[in-house]
Design a protein that fits this description.
Blueprint (H helix, E strand, L loop, with lengths): L13 E12 L2 E9 L9 E7 L5 E8 L10 E9 L2 E10 L6 E9 L6 E8 L4 E13 L2 E10 L4 E8 L5 E9 L5 E10 L2 E12 L4 E5 L2 E4 L2 H5 L16 E2 L7 E7 L5 E6 L5 H8 L4 E2 L6 E6 L2 E6 L1 H5 L2 E3 L3 H6 L1 E3 L5 E6 L6 E6 L4 E6 L4 E7 L6 E7 L6 E6 L2 E6 L4 E6 L7 E5 L6 E6 L10
Parallel strand pairs: 1-20
Antiparallel strand pairs: 1-2, 2-3, 3-4, 5-6, 6-7, 7-8, 9-10, 10-11, 11-12, 13-14, 14-15, 14-16, 16-17, 18-19, 19-21, 21-22, 23-34, 24-33, 25-30, 25-34, 26-27, 26-33, 27-28, 28-29, 30-31, 31-32
This protein binds beta-D-fructofuranose.
């Protein structure tokens, strides 16, 4: 079990995918998720459940929603949570594939104790405009109204986001196609929220082979979105409702998908995502010898700054840091050796640097910055091909970099989270960090997350 994480959410067996039903309810944070508790593959889906009082220490609650009704017999698919009249309502997609024919239904389950769930049945059936690729309801309240966005495919084979509304969060009606894609054949896991006064639509465009009805590739994106203008009919500009225009990537790295947001009691927008985009052969090899596969990203606080959606680990995580600040001598040699790979490296004051390199875990991941080219590149060794995969992104200037490393993952936050690279890694190398090319005024801080560099035995 070399890949079991220390501070990321993962079940003890089976396969985890999308975060579902994120909510703060009755003094607890709830993270539900897509779970195959039997095998490390996608053949079965129910909702698993974690709770926490502080976003740091998590309780494992086991199964929450099982596929025990006809309309969901092939999977309790993704969905979200809403609190109404003191009751927690979970909206999700019931997937039925009997006779090889897909049928999707948006369903409701309720709970008052966060432990026992009562199924209330189907609340939205697929409107005639769409195929049965109609899933992942995300609900929210806006004044006296309730809204639900759903990932969809139009009958013409193009991806879209559908909008339903309700006055009581029980009886729902299809309103309109909120936005459409010309490039992509499907959209999964939409989410809409406001942060720092800006409306944001999150969505996962997906290429599908509509002939064979199979998924080809997908990623997570967002765009600035004037929801009220569109719903009130004030904005009819098709570019605004076009999911291909103004689309930005949520993550610059390798493993990030199906993000979902919720609001914390103090009003912060918090996001979790599934930290995987592994291909089948990568998944197989990664899971070998392990009892489970896949984990969530760290919980991240969202903000909107200078036209960008920014993500940073929640401030609660800072409390968990046990600080080991690198001394001058270590700085000069540029090599920091930790006994474990559970650490956070923070670099600040980077604006005068021209070109440098950070090698993590003995070159398992390599970050490079070149000021003249305005480029940050991250390479990660691929465990199947044994070659480096590389991702690059353009930045106008560089100020800060934060790298959160766990046993088998790395999340790199550039410029206070305006660009993020998320990735899993497959290594037994300990936390060797080599920094080369830095100038004097850059501040490097290492935070050992397991306590003074000591390996903790489980
Ligand atoms: C996204 C997704 C969702 C679906 C779920 C099934 O990863 O395909 O669209 O509800 O996973 O597990």
């Amino acid at each position: 079990m070399i890949k079991r994480q220390k501070y990321h959410l993962e079940p003890d067996r089976g396969l985890l995918n999308d975060p579902n039903g994120l909510v703060f309810y009755k003094d607890m944070y709830h993270v539900f998720f897509q779970w195959n508790r039997f095998e490390k593959n996608h053949s079965y889906k129910e909702w698993g459940h974690f709770t926490s009082k502080d976003l740091l220490h998590w309780n494992w609650e086991g199964s929450a929603l099982l596929p025990d009704q006809f309309y969901e017999q092939n999977g309790v698919y993704s969905g979200s949570a809403l609190i109404k009249d003191g009751q927690l309502r979970l909206f999700y997609t019931g997937n039925n594939k009997s006779g090889g024919v897909r049928k999707s239904s948006q369903c409701l389950a309720v709970t008052e104790d966060g432990k026992t769930f009562q199924k209330k049945g189907i609340v939205v059936s697929t409107p005639t405009e769409f195929t049965e690729h109609f899933r992942d309801p995300k609900v929210w309240q806006d004044g006296d109204d309730y809204y639900m966005v759903i990932g969809a495919q139009m009958k013409n084979g193009r991806g879209s986001v559908a909008l339903c509304s309700s006055k009581d969060a029980e009886n729902w009606k299809f309103e309109l196609v909120l936005a459409k894609s010309k490039e992509y054949e499907m959209v999964e896991c939409p989410d809409y929220f406001q942060v720092d006064g800006q409306g944001i639509l999150l969505y996962c465009p997906q290429h599908r082979d509509n002939e064979s009805d199979s998924s080809l590739c997908s990623f997570s994106a967002y765009k600035e979105f004037d929801f009220n203008g569109i719903v009130s009919g004030k904005i009819e500009d098709s570019n605004v409702q076009n999911l291909d225009e103004g689309r930005k990537k949520m993550d610059q790295g390798f493993d990030f998908y199906a993000p979902q947001t919720f609001t914390s009691p103090d009003g912060r927008k918090i996001l979790f995502a599934w930290m995987s985009r592994m291909k089948e052969e990568e998944e197989k090899l990664f899971g070998e010898g392990e009892s489970s596969i896949h984990c969530m990203t760290l919980p991240r606080e969202l903000s909107y700054r200078n036209g960008e959606l920014c993500q940073l680990p929640v401030r609660e995580l800072e409390k968990s840091l046990c600080i080991h600040k690198i001394s001058g001598q270590e700085r000069q040699s540029g090599e920091i050796i930790l006994k474990n790979r559970v650490y956070c490296a923070k670099l600040s004051n980077l604006q005068n640097e021209t070109s440098f390199k950070i090698e993590f875990q003995n070159r398992e991941v390599i970050l490079e910055y070149k000021k003249v080219e305005k480029i940050i590149s991250v390479k990660r060794k691929n465990w199947v091909t044994k070659e480096y995969d590389e991702r690059t992104c353009k930045i106008d200037s560089l100020e800060t970099i934060e790298c959160w490393s766990d046993i088998s993952s790395m999340e790199i936050f550039v410029n206070q989270g305006s660009k993020v690279f998320s990735m899993r890694m497959f290594t037994e190398e300990n936390g060797k960090v080599k920094i080369s090319g830095l100038m004097k005024e850059t501040v490097v801080e290492m935070y050992d997350l397991m306590g003074e560099g000591e390996e903790k035995n489980e």
